[in-house]
Amino acid sequence: MKKWMLIFVVLLLLTLPLTACNQNELQKIRLAEVTHSIFYAPLYVALSKGFFKEEGLDVELTTTAGGDKTMTALLSDGADVALVGSETSIYVHAQGSKDPAINFAQLTQTDGTFLVSREKAEQFEWDQLKDSTFLGQRKGGMPQMVGEFVLKNNGIDPHEDLNLIQNIDFANVANAFASGTGDYVQLFEPTASIFEKEGRGHIVASFGSESGRVPYTTFMAKESYLDKNQDTVKKFTKAIYKAQQWVEENNAKDIATSILEQFPDTDPEIVETVIDRYKQQESFASDPILDEEEWNNLQDIMEEAGELPERIDHSSLVNTSIAEEVSSK
């Protein structure tokens, strides 16, 4: 009897470490981001500060370079979660998807582009754009739609009052401007700040400040994934909320220092400048809740650009229950 008891105790001691390992094993989430940008600073803070790991998650981040590719990755199960513009969920819904992409957490709440002028303007007025050559963004994408929305709000018809160029790939817009094409260009950071530092252009206006609150980039997952992985998505959203609060409470320099490993080829001063600019115009959402007003503003912008397939109720493609729960604690 004592012999069997001894064997039992030995087996128990051998299995305890294995049980502990299983309990400590991180759950993987495959996250596809539409581009790698300082604009997504809170996400990188969640990674660098270990907020995902605190929730028992191992986030595998992949840059999929473009809205179409990002949604393809999500819908084909190449990714569990996508970080992309909310407009893509509307496009997918319009195609009759039986497993729609649901927005469950918001990361940025304004446009992230800036108007850069080749010539320095002592006092910028939007009327100065009339009859100029303007390098815009890809038709149908949020930067282009927000850009046109802002221009129209300032009395400029982008297709009548400008020589509008939209046939240049996103990756080559900055190079085209640097090579001498255009009087004005719509640029993301850090390119806008780099151009200003190098004297290639001058930031004269912010499209984010002009367009109002909009769910510019959100985390989304297929409805079926959300249904089966509620607890996992809740942990993911909780980590994002921790990062959003950390960004809210810390200065640009500390935020920049925390995410520098994500941008090893970018001047640390530029990273800090960009973060400071985005913080000042409140581009980083302070919580993950995508509210109905923002959703409707998005659709107004899409409608104005002629890119809205149909108006979709907030409740159809947005799930705020998880974001509201983690934000209330």
From TrEMBL:
Signal sequence interval, chain numbering: 1-20
Alphabetical list of PANTHER family matching this protein: ALIPHATIC SULFONATES-BINDING PROTEIN-RELATED (PTHR30024), TAURINE-BINDING PERIPLASMIC PROTEIN (PTHR30024:SF47)
UniProt-annotated location(s): Periplasm
Name assigned to this protein: ABC transporter substrate-binding protein
Family, as annotated: Belongs to the bacterial solute-binding protein SsuA/TauA family.
Keyword Signal: yes
Gene3D superfamilies noted in UniProt: Periplasmic binding protein-like II
